[in-house]
Amino acid sequence: MKYMLIVKATACSEAGIHPNEEYAGKMLAFERSLAKSGKLWAAEELFPSSEGMKMVYSSQRNGPGITAGPFQSFEHHIARYYVVEVKSEEEAVYWAHQLPVDHSMGPNEIEIRRLKENEVCLKGKSNRVMERELKDYLRIL
Questions:
Q1: What is the mean pLDDT of residues 16-29?
Q2: How far apart are the first and last CA of the chain?
Q3: Mean pLDDT score across all residues of the chain
C-alpha cells in the first residue's frame, strides 16, 4: 500500500527561507535512506504559494476563478511530500517519524494519508516508465 507523507508549510517555507546546512544534510540522509530501502516512490519540494495559482469553481460561475498566490492560511499548504510504498500504516508512521524536523523554522506538521490505488493505471505503460525512471534515480543515490 502507498502513503503520502505531506510536510505542511511553515511561515518560513512560505517566505522562501531555506533551512540551514545541517538540516539540509539530515534531509538528504533521510531521502537516501528511504530510497535505499526501496520504499520511496516520489519526493518533491514545492515552491512557496507566492509562486502558485489557485482555481476555484463556484456554483455561480461557468468557469473557475483563478487567483495568483500568495495565499493566506499557509498552515494548509504543502511544502514537500513523499510517496512511500509500505506494508502497513505503522510502517508509514515509522518513516514519518524518521523525517528530520527543523524546530528553528517554526511549528512543523506532517500529515500521513493512504493513497487509493487504481489497478488499471498501475498496470499501464506509464507506470512502467515511472518505475524505470525511479530505478535510475535510485542508482544515482
A1: 87
A2: 24
A3: 83
Q: 14-28: string of b/e by CB count within 10 Å (b at 16+)?
A: beeeebeeebeebbe
Work out whether strand 40-45 and strand 53-56 pair parallel, antiparallel, or are unpaired: unpaired
Instruction: State the SS3 of 50-87.
Output: HHCEEEECCCCCCCCEEEECCCCCHHHCEEEEEEEECC
* 40: three-class secondary structure by DSSP: strand
Quote the domain boundaries for residue 129: 2-140
Residue 70: give its domain's CATH number: 3.30.70.1060
Digit-coded pLDDT (tens) for 44-102: 999 988 888 888 888 776 778 787 777 777 667 888 999 999 999 999 999 999 999 88
Number of domains in the chain: 1
Q: How many CB atoms lie within 10 A of CB 45?
A: 11
Residue with cell 519540494: 45
C-alpha cell at 85: 510504498
